[in-house]
Structure formats: C-alpha cells, structure tokens
Design a protein that fits this description.
The structure holds 2 protein chains of 2 kinds. By secondary structure, chain A is an alpha+beta fold. In chain A, 50% of the residues lie in helices and 16% in strands. Chain B is α+β, with helices and mostly antiparallel strands. The chains are: A alpha+beta, B alpha+beta.
C-alpha cells in the first residue's frame, strides 16, 4: 500500500508542478520541433469582453422578401464577416452562428466610439457594389439612388478580388483601384465602348459613391474616386475583396464595454478570491485540524489544476468576470467533497474503527453523496450552457470544469495524502482529527450499534 | 440531537414568513427588469460638468425620445459623475449624435458603456430564463428519481428536492423585487445565472441529506420513518453547515472586496445559498415526512386518523 501511494504522490506532485508552471503569468509556452513537426503551444488566459473591453454585436439575417435563408447562406455570411473583421485587425475576434438566423460578433480591444462605429458599419453592411447605367443623369454622391429606376450593368461579383486596393491621386486623396475578372472585363469593355458620354454611377449598398462620365472604352481597370477618408476607402476595399454579404443583416443587440470597468473589477476579484481561499484554509485547519491541513494542500493543488485547465491551448476557457466568480465559487464547493469525507471519517472513528478503516470507509461512503450532488451542479451547468449566451456560457464552463477537477482532487489527492499519512504513523492522536479525547485504536473495531438510541441521541463516543 | 422533524410546522411557517414579503413585493412592484429582458438602450457616461440628472434627461427628451430615465451613479472621479441613461432601443448612430450634444453641453464626456438590446431579444432572454429554471428542475427531478430508485417511493425524493429549490428561487426573486424598488437593483442575464447556480447548490445540499435517509432507511428497517429522517438530518447537520459556511465565506470575501460590477450577482448567490442550506435542512426533509405520513391529505380531511408509516427495507 505504501509503494502505490508513493507513486501516486509523485505523479500528483508532477502534475501540480506542471499546472503551476502553466498558471505562471508570463509563461513562455512550448515551442519545439519534434520529428519534423512544429509544436507551438501558448498558454494564455483568454479574457472575455467584460475584462478586456470591446464590442459585442448580435446580427440577425434580414432577408429580402422572397429570399430563402439556408444554412449555407448563413455560413457564407459568417465567413464574409470573419474575413472583413480580420482585415480590420482585431486580436482574436469571435464570430459565431447563433441559432438559425443570428451571428454573434465579439471584437475585444475595440475601444473608442469611432472604432466601434466603423466596425459595426464594416460588417453590418451588405457591401453590394453596383455599376448602374444612369444615362445622362449624374446623381450626386452620398445620396441613395432610386432603386429599380436604372439598369445595373455590373456588380462587385465581377470585380477581381486580388486587384482591389487603395491608391492616391495627385492631391493625395484616397481612391479605390480595382480590376475586372475576365467576364467583367469583356462586359465592361463592350458597355463603355457603346456608351461614351453617358454617366456610369457607382453605387455601394444603394448609396451613390460617384458618377463619372464615360470618356472612352475602358477594358480591365478602373478607379473609384470620391470623398473618402483613408479609413473609409480601406473599408470599401475590404468589402469588395471579400464580397458582399449573401443576405443583409441588421443589428439587434449591441454592447460596448469599456476596459477600465473590467480591469479594476478583475484585480479586486482576484484579491477577493485569494482572501476567500485563505479564510477557507484557515477554517478547515481549525475545524478539521490535520485532515483539514491536508485538505488545504489539496485545495491549493485544485486551484492550480483548475486554472491550468482554463489555459489549455486546445479549447481555452474565455474568462469573464462571472467566470472568475464561478471559479472562486467552485473553490468553496471543492471543499465540500473533502468535508463529506472527513465527516464520514469522524463518524467511523467515533464508532471505534481503526484509522485506516475509517479513512477507507469515509471515502467509500462519501463517494455516493459526492457523485450525486456534484452531478446536479453539472446538470445546472449544462442547462446554463444550452440556454445562455456567451457570458453565461463562460460561467457554466468554469463552474463545470471546477466541479470535475474538484472531484478528482478530493478523491485522488486527499486520499493519497491521508493514506500516506497513515503509513508514516504520524497521525495517531485523535485530537489531530478533531475527534475528542479518545485514543484512536489500531486494532479492529467493535461492531457498530444497530439501532438509533430510542431517545433519539447519537451513540456516545466510545 | 435536535428534533427538527417534530417541529416541522414551525419551520414551514418560518419559510412562509420569509417568502411572504418577497411575494407581496412581486405582486405590488413586480421586478425591476434590466434591458436584457425589456429591450432598450443603456448608456453609461461620465460628465465633467456634473449636471443634475434632470438636465441630462432633457437633452434626450429634446431630441425626441420619450421614455428616458437617468440615474446618477455612485462613483464620481476626476472625469466627473457617472450617469446611467436608459431609453428605448436606439442604434449606434443615434447614440453618437445624442452623446455629442450631451458632451457639448456638459462635457467633457467619457463614454464607459453602451448596450442596446432589441425588444425581440429581450423577450427571448426572458423566455429562455424561465425555460432554463424549468428545465433544470425537471432534469433534477428525473436524475434524483433514478439515483434513489432502490428506495421506496423514489419520485418523492426528487419532488421534495425540487420543492425546496423552488422555495429558494421564489425567495431570491421576491427579495429582488424589494431590493429593486429600494435600491434600483436590476434583474439581468447575470441574475438568471445566479439563480440557476443557486438551484444547483440547493439540490447539492438536499441530496446529501437524502443520501443519509436512503442509507438509514435500509439500516433501520423497523423504525418510524419520521425518526429515521430526523436522525439522518442530525447526522448531516455538521457537514451541511460546514459546506455552506465555506462557500459563504468565499462569497462574502468576493462581496466585500470584489469588483463593483458583480456585486449584485454575488449577493444573489449569497442569499440563495443561505436559503438553500436552510431549505435542505428544514424544508426538504420535513416535506418527505409530511408526504409519507399523508399529512396533506389529512389536512384536507380526506384520510381518516393519522397512520405514521413505518420505514420498510427495499
């Protein structure tokens, strides 16, 4: 028995050390090449929006009458939005489908109001570019073009995505250079040849960008001029590059969160967590004494393992403020399993069992309760995950992860420590276990009484 | 050892008294719903000129918005007082215009937060919240009935646990109705998360007690059910209180020292867990006994003289 426990102890120390290293804030990660394969693992905490500050927008598909909404359309819309946002340059944006008609977009770090507006315009607008034959009329730029009045010659579909860029004219005003694909070039060439002198209006999402006059046949290149700022020009280029959204979307929910609110809260919450942990450890020590001390160690290991699990590189848990609260809560709950075991142990000791038997019986008897009660918490987490939005899901994940890890630490870690303690013969004094006054027998115990006392009092310690 | 089951009527009354103010509050004032549920827009700004709330409000009203409410926040720092402005749903463009006007009148203006929820989403969130509590209750009922399948009348354990947790939910929601009226505490999506956590916890606690009952029912086959339950509750008393105490300690630390943004959330958890502990010890087990003894039916005059049921082995 001692050998097995020692091995387990070694494994536990190893895992705890690894976890401790992972949790360490400025972790360099693992970057190596093994058998010609590159391994690049980073251990970072993914901070949720409420910690970093940023923008969260919920888009809903707003199909034109008669337009059918299929999963392919939604997926296509999602990837267009994703490409546009990547071009915008945010770190780690989140773009996900939600339900059948919605897309959630989270852009952490987007802080100033101007940035936010720009971002929402960028991915919220369809981005349909049209070249419209307006005959002899030159509609003023910046105004919506009357729909249906003029025939559309070409759309952005025929624009060669690799040939779109921002250029500057002699006065350093930004303009957009673009090229046609083969089909577009042909149509454009034919059209311009036949319509010299007429106006070709360039429209983006129904609003006129500019309306130049056709002076001669133009083949494969063109320039869109207008009064754009550099940012606007860049955004238009992005929209052209990745195409128009297959279905228009509208913003149904928007949250902008300032980072300062978050950072202050985080620091304080982490400190509160540390204080909470400290208080719990002190309490366990006072009430349960030696096993309490062991539980304390197990708790610390638990915290390390849990937090390391959040940082795992394959599916890192996005940490939100609620998530931190969930983690701190799970620390309190992790103690529960230990308490269940210790109370059982105390009972067994009072009934006269040997220490070794008491430990084993404590664990076995307590396991049913631990399993059932933690399971109900997991059920709630599952429900929270299913029904909730991003913020709630983060909380559910941290809590669920915490519960699972806590079960492991209670069963494996605490038990190993206790067994080892037993084998070293250290713990003989019952006082160390919080059971009053009587020496803990090492010989086999007597039978447990078979009925509760008729007066309803617990059997006396004996 | 305490006679808990024997005094169960007292404890039922206490529970009733605890829930009552909340229920009255709910009936009169309803809940102070945040925009997560009602839809609308919320802007949080700091204004250097520290105007009165009414002045801020008039800027919005002048722009044509009718349903505007402005609350001055509790923090004032170098950038000015904090103002929480709530209107019906506006888009980002309208918001910028309004803030520009506000900034030029009472600036400098720092925008801390802007949230906008369409009315459809709001209703959905409310529905989802309700379904979530319902779903959790049903799942837990089924799970407990399965876990206790070897005991006579397994469904009762699940049902009593669910009753106990509904008591906790009603208590917290009722309390929030009162706090919403007095302190303006809002019900938002985070609140629902807290409620569901309380649900999980309450059941967690109740299960430990029931677990003991299950064990003792088979250990003492000839005993009065009432006695067995009472004994079980007493045996688990230490453990119930200790577990809840550790969680309460950590939550109190969070409440006192943690950030302001989750304070409401932590408070819900705290109240809910205290209530959950109480309901597990004093409500759930008592309900079991009441059910077993057929006291409800007797109350309604259907059964004739009380026949305390004897615990039978499985």
């Amino acid at each position: 028995m001692r050998r097995r426990e020692s091995i387990t102890l070694a494994v536990i120390i190893l895992i705890a050390s690894v976890a401790g290293w992972i949790v360490w804030p400025d972790n360099p990660g693992i970057h190596a090449t093994v058998f010609d394969r590159d391994i690049d693992i980073d251990f970072r905490v993914v901070e949720g929006l409420d910690l970093q500050g940023g923008l969260q927008v919920l888009l809903e598909a707003d199909p034109a009458p008669g337009q059918e909404l299929t999963p392919e359309t939604m997926n296509a819309a999602r990837s267009v939005i994703e490409q546009r946002i990547n071009a915008f340059g945010t770190t780690e944006p989140v773009i996900q489908l939600q339900g059948q008609r919605r897309i959630v977009v989270e852009m952490p770090g987007v802080k100033t109001p101007e940035e936010r507006e720009r971002a929402v315009k960028l991915f919220g607008e369809t981005g349909l570019l049209e070249f419209v034959d307006t005959g002899s009329t030159s509609p003023p730029p910046g105004r919506p073009l009357e729909p249906g009045k003029y025939p559309t010659v070409l759309t952005g579909k025929n624009v060669d995505a690799s040939a779109v860029s921002v250029t500057f004219d002699q006065r350093n005003t930004p303009q957009i250079a673009f090229g046609w694909d083969a089909e577009g070039a042909r149509t454009f060439g034919d059209y311009t040849e036949k319509n010299v002198g007429k106006y070709l209006t360039i429209v983006l999402d129904g609003v006129v960008l500019s309306a130049p006059r056709i002076n001669s046949r133009i083949e494969d290149r063109g320039v869109i001029t207008g009064r754009f700022s550099l940012a606007e020009a860049k955004d238009i280029v992005t929209k052209l590059k990745y195409g128009a959204l297959p279905v228009p979307v509208k913003v149904v929910q928007q949250r902008e969160i300032g980072a300062t609110l978050g950072q202050d809260s985080v620091d304080r919450s982490i400190m509160a967590g540390a204080v909470g942990l400290g208080v719990v450890l002190a309490y366990m020590l006072i009430y349960y004494r030696l096993p309490g001390f062991i539980a304390g160690l197990a708790l610390v290991i638990y915290s390390l393992l849990s937090f390391a699990a959040f940082k795992n590189p394959w599916a890192p848990v996005t940490l939100t403020l609620a998530g931190i609260a969930g983690f701190i809560l799970s620390i309190g709950m992790a103690v529960d399993a230990n308490i269940l075991i210790f109370e059982r142990m105390k009972e067994e000791l009072r009934l006269g069992r040997t220490l070794g038997a008491a430990i084993e019986a404590g664990f076995n008897r307590a396991w049913d309760s631990i399993r059932d009660s933690n399971f109900s918490t997991l059920i709630t987490c599952a429900i929270l995950y299913y029904f909730g939005s991003g913020l709630i899901r983060g909380f559910a994940l941290t809590l669920a992860l915490g519960v699972v890890v806590s079960m492991f630490t209670a069963i494996v870690v605490t038990r190993t420590f206790l067994r080892l303690l037993l084998s070293t013969g250290v713990a003989r004094m019952p006082a160390l276990f919080g059971v009053g006054g009587v020496a803990v027998p090492v010989e086999p115990a007597k039978r447990a009484p078979s009925r509760p006392d008729p007066n309803g009092f617990l059997p006396a310690a004996n | 050892m305490f006679d808990i089951i024997g005094r169960r009527n007292i404890y039922f009354m206490i529970s009733g008294l605890m829930i009552l103010p909340g229920l009255i509050g709910l009936a009169i004032w309803g809940l102070n719903l945040g925009i997560d549920f009602t839809g609308g827009s919320l802007v949080e700004v700091r204004l250097g000129a520290n105007p009165a709330a009414a002045q801020v409000r008039s800027v919005f009203v002048d722009a044509g918005l009718t349903d505007v409410s402005v609350i001055t926040g509790s923090t004032t720092d170098a950038l000015g007082k904090t103002y929480l402005i709530r209107t019906k749903t506006i888009d980002a463009g309208a918001k910028s215009d309004l803030l520009a006007k506000l900034g030029s009148a009472y600036g400098p203006l720092t925008e801390d937060r802007f949230e906008s929820v369409g009315p459809v989403i709001g209703r959905e969130t409310a529905t989802n919240a309700f379904l979530a509590v319902l779903g959790a209750s049903v799942l837990i009922l089924f799970y407990l009935s399965y876990a206790f399948r070897q005991v006579p009348n397994p469904w009762r354990y699940g049902a009593c646990a669910v009753f106990a947790l509904l008591h906790d939910v009603v208590l917290v929601v009722g309390l929030w109705s009162i706090l919403g009226k007095l302190f303006g505490l809002e019900v938002d999506a985070l609140f629902v998360t807290a409620i569901l956590t309380v649900v999980g916890f309450s059941v967690h606690d109740t299960i430990v007690v029931f677990d003991r009952v299950r064990e003792n029912v088979s250990r003492f086959p000839g005993e009065l059910f009432e006695r067995v339950v009472n004994f079980s509750v007493n045996q688990t008393l230490d453990r119930s209180i200790n577990t809840s105490l550790t969680v309460i300690l950590t939550l109190t630390a969070l409440l006192l020292l943690g950030g302001a943004t989750i304070r409401g959330f932590v408070l819900v958890l705290l109240v809910g867990i205290v209530s959950g502990t109480y309901s597990s010890i004093f409500n759930a087990s008592c309900l079991l006994v009441v059910w077993e003894n057929g006291e409800f039916a007797r109350l309604l005059g259907r059964l004739s003289p009380a026949k305390p049921v004897v615990a039978t082995s499985p």
